[in-house]
Amino acid sequence: MNDLDPIVDAARQAFAAASSPADLENAKAQFTGKAGRITELMKGLAALSVEEKKSRGAAINVAKQAIEAALAARRQALAEAELEQQLHAEALDVTLPGRAREPGGLHPVTLTMERIELIFASMGFDVADGPEIESDWHSFTSLNNPPNHPARSMQDTFYVDIQGEDGIHYNLRPHTSPMQVRYAHQHIKKFADAVKAGQPLPEIRVIAPGRTYRVDSDATHSPMFHQCEGLWLGENVSFKDLKVVFTDFCRTFFESDDLALRFRPSFFPFTEPSAEIDIQFQSGPLAGKWLEVAGSGQVHPAVVRNMGLDPEKYIGFAFGMGPDRLTMLRYGVNDLRLFFEGDVRFLRQFR
Fold it and tell me: 0.85 cut: is pTM over it?
């Protein structure tokens, strides 16, 4: 029996008794560490002759290799035991039904915008879209709202740090009203051709829904909000048409004939005369209250002229309403900010 065999057996027993990687490393230190038994035997080789070093060193190496093999085997066993324990703790029952992802849905304001477009399309209105970054001329001046006009303070907006040719300033549009002028310019050739051909003047009948921006934020206002501009110009379009169109729209939108409209005199630079439009429900939680839903009026001759049209031939009305406000009324929501906070618990109910 080799005198090193007991050391190897002791190492195997110590390794087998180790129940964790830390215990195993402590056991290893007893045999192959800096002060371990095998290490001490290696140090003792210095006192032996050359021939004795060869034979004794070879024997110590065999013992060391046996200890390291036992150490590696025990490390593998502990790792496998740990993995087995982890797999057992995290076991998955593949026969269970999976967690289905909830179906998404359109945002309530998007639902309102689509509803508005469908209703006005049924009345023969086109739907126009335009840039959210607008020139100062389109946002204000073309709409009879020149620089330094007091009415601009009612529509303070966000200006963009860029300047175009001739020092043109750009802003995030405060309303979708610029689409009145843009739409007319896009179709001006059609009007000119009709005049040359002696044909009846084509009408402009269009709505322009979209995002707008103003410096405002509270329970009923948001810095970013939605607006829908409406415009109807022709040879004989009057305030009576405005009342008929908007009354029909409101009753269709709210799916109720049980509501009344009133037009309150007001001021807007781009219309003259101008009126705020209020609605009153005759039943339900809002019964008896007058609620403002839109601004309107007969398009100002200066605006018609900026469209490239003759105000002596073209007359009509424009209105601007807030789809966000209509969404609040339709669904009984009392805080506009809920629509834009991204709370899935709130939005889920509109799916």
Answer: no
